[in-house]
Amino acid sequence: MRKNKIKVITLATLLFTSFTTATAVSVDKNGSVTGEGGESYNPLQTAIPSLSIAPDAVGGGMGDVGAATAPDYNSQHWNPAKYALSQSRGGVGLSYTPWLRKIVDDIDLVYLAGFYKPTDRTAIGASFRYFNMGKINLTGERDASGNPQDLGVAQPYEMAFDASFSMLLSEYWSAGVALRFIYSDLFNGMNDEDDYSKAKAFGADIAFAYRKPVQINEHESTVGFGVAITNIGNKVSYDKDASQQFIPTNFRIGGSFEYAFDDFNRLGFALDLNKLLVPTPYGSRSNYETDEEYQEAKRKYEECSSIGGIFRSLGDAPGGFKEELKEFNISMGLEYSYNRKFMVRGGYFNESADKGNRKYFSVGAGFHLMIFELNAAYLISIAQTNPLDRTLRFSLGFDLGGIKTLFGSNEAETSED
């Protein structure tokens, strides 16, 4: 078990620093994060962080927004309630993201999502996410000569499959739920007898969306609102329940406004707030006056249930309300579209320096034809040494309604001939 714990700590540290920080830090076995100059950070920590990655190039090109933007085939990640508000009968999309290309060249995310509306008031959706983490050389304690122990090479990966159902509550309001199976194998490829385990979890989403057309200057603009709590699920373990970790339960709320200049030119704005609904880590021994206080804080954190962690996360920041506000990430984006066929996007994402310091701009573009849509996005970091800098996203989508219209028009032309 000792060797297994070393491996868990080693791999978890690599993944944690890659996902949550844009500065050079060190992470100890208790999760305490320290900067180059000895400054202390207090970011929220979860297992399976890939669930929080924005998978598509539409939201990715607008600073990672999606709570209240127009429904599309990738709404399953952002807010599944939006599917019921879609004007299309259905759609399917495939997204690909090469991840952390400034550091390695073998980490990527593949995301397949789609939906179908069997009636005008209801919609069903599904998605599959696969996150390949490449190869990681694991090392353990140093031997008598000072050389780290070679524990082998792991090829970790994470995946999730989910399905959703959404329906209209009124003409402009909709609600949706999703159920998700989550699987993570951090030691894939390791052939030893260590007592490690694969992490498995079931998660659920609860979401609401609002979208209403408004007349401005004789043209139809649109206002939107959305709220979603995602990944409400059990804690996971990589060491046969010797220790457990929270999955990234997230609260997302946002609004959008799309202004129509005329029949062809439109400009949309969207703003999202995100907060992880997981407890703040207990940190290191140096943060407490006595060892008893430290042990008590550690016990409460480790024994906290996933549902209890949601409520605890609303007011457990050591710095009080001021630090609690730092746990909200802000993302905002703009989209200009011409005739809904050509789109140009830009956005900004901001995270407190104490909670991860992810700060970046994003740009993107898209083309929409009758049947398919192609989108691309590019991330530009403004935080020093951010490993996410120059991240690309690509999305290809197919509109089932467009396919039906195409074949319908062909049939009409044939009958006329």
Describe the structure.
By secondary structure, the chain is an alpha+beta fold. The chain has one domain (2-416): Porin (Beta Barrel), CATH 2.40.160.40. Helix content is 17%, strand content 43%. It contains seven helices and 19 strands. It has helices at residues 2-20, 57-60, 75-78, 291-303, 306-312, 321-326, 400-416; strands spanning 25-27, 33-35, 40-41, 90-98, 108-116, 122-132, 136-142, 148-154, 157-168, 173-185, 199-216, 219-233, 250-260, 265-276, 328-338, 342-350, 359-368, 372-381, 392-399. It has a 14-stranded antiparallel beta barrel with strand order 4-5-6-9-10-11-12-13-14-15-16-17-18-19. A hairpin with a 2-residue loop joins strand 11 (199-216) and strand 12. The longest helix has 19 residues, at 2-20.
Describe what is shown at a glance.
With 417 residues, the chain is an alpha+beta fold. It contains seven helices and 19 strands. The chain has one domain (2-416): Porin (Beta Barrel).
Could you name the key traits of this structure?
19 strands; disordered N terminus; 417 residues; 14-stranded antiparallel barrel; alpha+beta; 7 helices; 3-stranded antiparallel sheet; Porin
